[in-house]
Structure of Xylose isomerase-like TIM barrel domain-containing protein:
Amino acid sequence: MAPLQVDPSKIPLSLASCSIGLPRHNLHSKLEAISQAGLQGIELSFPDLQSHANELVRLGQLKPSSGKGDEVAEDDWPALCEAAKHIKHLCDTHNKLKIIVLQPFGNFEGWPKGSEERRKVWEKADGWVKIMESCGCDMLQVGSTDTPSSKGIPSDKKQLASDLAGLADMLAPKGFRIAYENWCWATHAPTWKDVWEVVQLADRDNIGLCLDTFQSAGGEWGDPTTQSGRIEREGLSESSLQASWRDSLRELSRTVPAEKIYFLQVSDAYHVQPPLAANPEPNDDSGLRPRGRWSHDYRPLPYDGGYLPIADFVRAVLETGFRGWFSVEVFDGQFDKKYGDDLMKYAEKAKASNAKLVKEAAAMESLRSNNGVPNPVTGSQPVVQFHRAPLSGSPPPALLHPLEYPAVMSSSASGWLYSQGFKNPSGGSPSDLRAALRSATTPANTGEEAEVPDTRVERFLSMTWKAWPCAATSGMALP
């Protein structure tokens, strides 16, 4: 397959406010550098909002309203909203920078009903919605919770999804959205596949994904606790790890629709030497798991000292058809040494490195170049012999509307294929099935006005493999 035709200059670029500068740099200087470097947006980090509010207090332009002293507290919603309005004004004066998202809203989902923690996170959510209204931002980033299971966080993704659905319902009347991100040290949803499952279970139009190059490459391929910097466990060779990583990317490119990716965060990671301890050091009071510690201080810009296969991940995202916001989010403990007070130099490098990354990803070999759909369980090619006869009957809804029929509901789709003669688990190529499916999804067969796009066919196929063993052995009837 030919390289993707992607113009990096046509992809909108943002920079997280928490990723530029040091504590001595105020938000105004950060916005100035971001704007002058030619970026179009920012992620507004809550700590930067609170810091800006306190700067306004020192300048005599704002008074805390909580009665807790001269500092603006993290729950002083009136003062924080006033600061948010001021930030919007600053963004407007700096080439109308867009605040694409308010972040990071963490440890939200899963708290037991009736618990004090649950009451507080919902109260916090209400306050953050007020801030979003004040700064003109329509998207809230929610990170997958890393609260330990010992505190009552369930492993049942349906319960996590229920909380997200409730939050989405709170945001919907205002036209706001949730971008759900996998944090690679999270308790129950550390991978893109986990958060995508939760998003599908939540089943709300205003919930999508925040994908992240570090969170996926650092969670599925990298490991800060090993000498090699890669995941190492008994029986896992380097080639097997690479195959597993590529299978994951291929599945992402086939199953996640572009419209459900709300934005992509970009960063790399340092190969930590000596490796981080598997358990926190005695003087480490952060309580973070190793990948959490890695994330907080060892994430540079692309091409600035990192080693993760992040271009692979960008390639997968581009193959979904996504061309929305890319956002640089880094946490580089070497920022002062590398850039000091030259925020403009850093912002320009962020823009240039992102363009280089997009070009590298676009030029890579396609994840679909093997003309096959990988078996998501084994990573091998599917072992199903296909016939060449035209398909009969109407395709199942899972093919026509894959977003409404996640993988957990795809057994009926497999049953339909079984009834068409795709039965024998004895080798073969999926190309015949692809051709047959495309033939079956013409307007004459579906009743739709246009042909079903190939992306739907690919999502359908990816879902189907997961349920295939059930269909192939039970002879499920045509639904």
In short: The chain has a mean pLDDT of 82. The two ends are 36 Å apart (CA to CA). The chain has 17 helices and ten strands. The chain has two domains: 8-363, 397-474.
